[in-house]
Amino acid sequence: MKHRPLSLQLFRAGWKTSLSSEGGRLRFWAIFLATSLLALTLGGLVLAHATYEGRELRGAARAPQILREAQRSEAVALWSWDTDDVDGRQFAVVYIEPLASDAPLPPGLDRWPHPGEVLLSPALLKAGEREGIRTRYGKLVGTIGVEGLEAPEERFAYVRPRAHLLDKQDMHPVASFGLRREGIASLGESMSIPDLSVLAAGLAGFTLLPAAALAVTAVRIGSAARQRRLALFEALGAGAGSRMVFTVGEVTGPSLLGLGTAAVVLSPALLTDIPFPWVDFTLSVQDARRAVPWLVAAGVVAFAALLVAAVLLHPRRPAEGSTRPVSRFQRQRAWLPWLFPFAMLFAVRGSELAGDELRLPVYALGVAGVLATLPSVIAALTGWFGGRIARAGNKLGRPGMLVAGRRMATQTRVTARFVAAVIVMIGLVAQTQLWTSLLGENATNALSTRDRIGTSLLTVSPYPGDRERMADFMAALPSDAHALLAQQSAPGGNDAATLLLTGSCAALKAVKLPCSAAGSSDVKPRDTRISELLRWTGGRADAQVVAQQGRVDGVKVADDEVLSLLVVSQSGNDLSVPALKETAHAHLSVQASVEPLGNSWLLGAKDLAASASWVRLLGMIGACLTVVAIGFTALAEFLRFGREVAPLSVLTGGNRIFGTIVTWSLLAPTLVAAVLGSVISLWLTAPITVGGRQPVPDSLYLILAVVTSACAVLLCLWGWRSAARTATSWRPVGD
Length: 735
Hints:
This protein is of the alpha+beta class. Helix content is 56%, strand content 12%. The strands form three sheets. The chain has a seven-stranded mixed sheet with strand order 1-7-2-3-6-4-5. A seven-stranded mixed sheet has the order 13-14-12-11-15-10-16. Strand 2 (77-86) and strand 3 (89-98) form a beta hairpin. Helix 2 packs antiparallel against helix 5 and helix 13 (412-436) packs parallel to helix 21. The longest helix has 47 residues, at 599-645. Residues 318-329 have low confidence and may be disordered.
């Protein structure tokens, strides 16, 4: 009956000690921040999963139940889809045609649109305002409801074709909308966003790892004072359970406050949609509310993780039967540095051997392992040098070198904690730059093509077989635009492929080609647009180009030919892509596409840029968390350092010794961490290359090393000042 009151007293004693002990305030706020940030990070993972799950659910709800051709007579509607782009971002366009008056509506629509009417998502309407999205497909009659969109910011369109452009044979018969199968292929925004595993890897690497580092740092602050208290507890006969209850009491207060803060930060997501800065994403309130139980579980996990860390990382009793802490027990485990080469091998080679689906998670796990084990390697190196520095200081009569060397040799665990935040910071910056610099070789070529010819040559697809539609389209072209027909035949034997361009004399002369009904070879030097056309249609630079005056409509396509409709500018100025898209949709086909050369690669690059914006956001969050961890680590280390070396001022009669100790025991390991961290980060980018080149310039790593070294100097000057200030107030009295 007395055990419970004693446990409660120990818990309350630990609760009160959390602020009153040595370094207690610093530890209190560090644990508060660590719990809050860890809960927010785990909550972010939960919300990410809920968002992807919500996309899948809403995507399944609007997916059509497609019938077989034999069941076409049972269809209640016709359905097809295509893609288009606005502001360089691709989106889905769904074409619908009801066949029955009581046909079920797709989610997000309150009525079937009439022929030629369009409904757009609010995000698409806003993004495409400058590109004439209101009139591109027909008459805008409303917006799609949120229940019909995978995400609030999804760009999506429903179009009912004009009567004269309705091609029923090209549309799928459907019985209804809504599929309940798991794992179905989603149509829309889900086609262009990274998998959940990619986002989860980014969250884990950029936010969870720094938050965990801060948690470890927080529970270790004031370890010397806690070591003395726990040793006293043990001397009084307290068992491991009693010490654990006291430790839990110390951590519970700031942890609960941190959980409350995290709950306050996340609570707006349960009330309304939350737009994220710098990324085109809005968190759906529906997804957040559905994830409430898992958010509570994430908070419990964060709270439990801090308690477990505080219990497991408590200062250990230095020797059997002794209550006096000895510095040699600050040495790290001998096997820990040996994990580093395996983590490095796993990151560099494991990602190359893994399949495409597992490559990124394996790489992210390997990078996390490298960043977690590299501090122990630096600590081992500085500890090895510490013994030699101490011997050199003893021979030379330098007390500063002697004290610093022994401190480095016996407190390698302290060194590892101090440099860990520096290593993580360098790794995060390098990885952020890596993933925001990736751009495919074809996308780079497409940008070069756009710079050279702009939009003065556009491709129109698919080639329309209807002469009447083609005539209407050509009549609606602006005065500066002309149509050309490109026919490319496959090469035979040693012959190069031949590109035949057919059109009016005005169209041929616009690209500096001769005008002849019989056909004639082009002149050189060629028009830049013809060279770029050959480049993107797979032709060689020496391919023969034949110009022929003739009609561009009603041409029959042979099996060995590739047919393309081109629109060229006679003046060489840029053509309006949005205007020509509207013209093509009005006269050629509902699925007509008008785009510059290499546009598909540019769209892919734009999707990559959107993903890169997430990397920047997560990288900035991770960098901020790491800065906080560095700050608390530095404050805790300077508090410990000042207390340890303060008595030396009495023996040496001055504070100059502090400068020597700071230089060797704090500055030297940080400089080694800056250099090794930059070099290792360079090696970690080796598996991620584009076209045989590194996407991150080597100069970045030099800048990282220099900047980190400068920060190390400033931090160590701060440590010198802290030690000197502590020495002035030190008195030879017991704690």
